[in-house]
């Protein structure tokens, strides 16, 4: 009680407590952005690579934050001290002084760490679907230990770019621009996904598996971005414990962040509409993020019309830059990390130096901004190329062709993210037990002509009903395969990031039953009845003769093998 009473009478203790709670709250908000990155990237990859993308996001945080704590912070301080910043202290995060008094050292470290890990996780989206997990983790270690800390030392660590006058409020270039350039470099070195480009240089569209995931991930990121920008603006209380310090400025930051986000979505949507005649959903989502990136470096000092201009231009450049990277540079940037984070970050960092963008009392040196972009960009590209170049020379950067075709979920993790095969069944008393308790033994009247193969092509969502129907007629043994086919079901036109493609092969499930005693007509009727919806695309059922059969375990042949 004595300590509490003393704290309540000490304005400094109140200041420290309130400010620590504020910083930790926005820190946790920024950490939640990793959920947004995970969903955004998972939605933009194929279903066979979803678990791999989610795993990379989790390991980015887990491995990266540990390395940044042990080594990265010290590297940033050394770089800052050697380039004109404050003198450095080796291993300062382990200094006991951080753990005494107000404990601000630990709080400030964690706040810096979530920024570092945001830069790290951006890269994973560019190289999705073809990179070995160990290669990605190796780069994450290097980025957290050296690449990002060097940039941090040059800038927020008060090194030479800071001394020159380079301005970046919350990481538009330091975090996002750097991450986008690293992703572009990595995607170039690892090469495009299989079948992304034809021999004549034309591009094949490879749609991601879930626009819903991508949009939800975008909105989570946008929510966390308020922690990124508003959280950087100020701490609530000044040193005397009563006055609101610079906290009044968070209103400007919240407003310009919101306007930049909105303008980015509209800018990307309008350009997509102009180019394709449609408002592309994914471009709107990516444009929202590009608008946020564009104003992140300047949101504290710009006037509100500048937020609309910078955010709108950052969104508008997105479809144009993505198309240039894809078609001219032939770089397969799966999640568009360069136009979202790289070019948008550069744009916002440079535009803040244009006269009239900032409040009257603030002048930004264009030479310092250009120098900062060139130094950060040059260092990032060279360091990233060095790491991935060595991995490529060692043959450790890319999965095999077989594994890429199979999907990284299976080859890298042994996981099937979307198991397709309906409800569980168990065998009891020599018959087949479905979840509703129906038991039917395998047997009945013999088929005319011996063994028959009943083959049905059905809608995927009807598989569970078909399995139930087959069990009820005594044909529980089936083989199920995911296939694509074309029949009476009309073709559709799909669009992925503004590019149209024809969907004339529709997803189906092939069900095969080999029967000897159970009448083939009954099996075919069971499939047909269970799969029927009355719409085009219900599928077909075929009955074919089977010349012979061999049971591998027992050596039985003919009908006995079935």
TrEMBL record:
Residues 21-418 form the Ammonium transporter AmtB-like domain. Gene3D superfamilies: 3.30.70.120, Ammonium transporter AmtB like domains. The modification O-UMP-tyrosine is found at residue 501. Involved in the uptake of ammonium/ammonia (NH(4)(+)/NH(3)). Transport is electrogenic. This is Ammonium transporter. InterPro entries: Ammonium/urea_transptr, Ammonium_transpt_CS, N-reg_PII, N-reg_PII-like_a/b, N-reg_PII/ATP_PRibTrfase_C, N-reg_PII_CS, NH4_transpt_AmtB-like_dom. Belongs to the P(II) protein family. Belongs to the ammonia transporter channel (TC 1.A.11.2) family. It comes from the Archaea. It is a multi-pass membrane protein. Pfam families: Ammonium_transp, P-II. The chain crosses the membrane at residues 20-40, 61-86, 106-129, 136-157, 169-191, 203-226, 246-274, 281-297, 303-322, 334-355, 367-391. GO terms for molecular function: ammonium channel activity; enzyme regulator activity. GO terms for biological process: ammonium homeostasis; regulation of nitrogen utilization. GO terms for cellular component: membrane. Keywords: Ammonia transport, Cytoplasm, Membrane, Phosphoprotein, Transmembrane, Transmembrane helix, Transport. Its main location: membrane. It is found in: Membrane.
């Amino acid at each position: 009680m004595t300590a509490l009473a003393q704290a309540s009478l000490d304005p400094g203790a109140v200041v420290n407590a309130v400010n620590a709670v504020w910083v930790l709250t926005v820190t946790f908000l920024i950490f939640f952005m990793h959920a947004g990155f995970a969903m955004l990237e998972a939605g933009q990859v194929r279903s066979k690579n979803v678990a791999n993308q989610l795993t990379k996001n989790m390991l980015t945080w887990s491995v990266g934050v540990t390395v940044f704590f042990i080594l990265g912070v010290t590297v940033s301080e050394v770089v800052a001290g050697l380039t004109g910043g404050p003198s450095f202290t080796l291993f300062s995060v382990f200094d006991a002084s951080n753990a005494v008094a107000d404990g601000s050292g630990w709080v400030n470290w964690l706040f810096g760490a979530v920024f570092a890990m945001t830069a790290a996780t951006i890269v994973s989206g560019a190289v999705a679907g073809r990179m070995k997990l160990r290669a990605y983790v190796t780069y994450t270690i290097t980025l957290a230990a050296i690449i990002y800390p060097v940039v941090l030392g040059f800038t927020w660590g008060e090194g030479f770019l800071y001394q020159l006058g380079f301005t970046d409020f919350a990481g538009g270039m330091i975090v996002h621009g750097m991450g986008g350039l690293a992703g572009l470099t990595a995607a170039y070195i690892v090469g495009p996904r299989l079948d992304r480009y034809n021999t004549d240089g034309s591009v094949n569209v490879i749609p991601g598996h879930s626009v819903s995931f991508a949009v939800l991930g975008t909105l989570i990121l946008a929510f966390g971005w308020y922690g990124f920008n508003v959280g950087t603006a100020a701490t609530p209380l000044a040193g005397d414990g009563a006055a609101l310090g610079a906290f009044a400025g968070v209103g400007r930051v919240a407003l310009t962040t919101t306007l930049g986000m909105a303008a980015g979505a509209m800018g990307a949507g309008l350009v997509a509409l102009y180019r394709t005649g449609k408002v592309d959903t994914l471009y709107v989502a990516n444009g929202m993020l590009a608008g946020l990136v564009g104003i992140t470096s300047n949101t504290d000092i710009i006037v509100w019309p500048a937020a609309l201009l910078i955010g709108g231009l950052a969104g508008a450049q997105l479809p144009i830059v993505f198309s240039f990277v894809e078609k001219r540079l032939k770089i397969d940037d799966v999640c568009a990390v360069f136009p979202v984070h790289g070019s948008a970050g550069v744009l916002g960092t440079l535009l803040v130096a244009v006269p009239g963008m900032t409040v009257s009392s603030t002048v930004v040196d264009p030479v310092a901004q250009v120098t900062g972009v060139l130094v950060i960009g040059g260092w990032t590209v060279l360091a990233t190329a060095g790491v991935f170049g060595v991995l490529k020379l060692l043959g450790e950067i890319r999965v095999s062709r077989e594994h890429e075709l199979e999907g990284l979920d299976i080859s890298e993790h042994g996981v099937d993210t979307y198991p397709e095969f309906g409800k569980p069944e168990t065998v009891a008393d020599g018959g087949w037990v479905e979840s509703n308790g129906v038991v039917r033994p395998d047997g009945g009247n013999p088929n005319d002509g011996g063994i028959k193969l009943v083959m049905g092509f059905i809608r995927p969502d009807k598989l569970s009903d078909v399995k139930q129907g087959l069990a009820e007629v005594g044909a529980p043994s089936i083989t199920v395969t995911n296939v694509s086919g074309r029949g009476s079901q009309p073709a559709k036109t799909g669009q992925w990031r503004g590019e149209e493609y024809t969907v004339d092969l529709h997803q189906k499930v092939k069900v095969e039953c080999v029967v000897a005693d159970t009448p083939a007509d009954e099996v075919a009727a069971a499939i047909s009845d269970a799969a029927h919806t009355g719409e085009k695309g219900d599928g077909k059922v075929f009955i074919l003769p089977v010349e012979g059969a061999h049971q591998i375990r027992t050596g039985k042949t003919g009908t006995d093998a079935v």
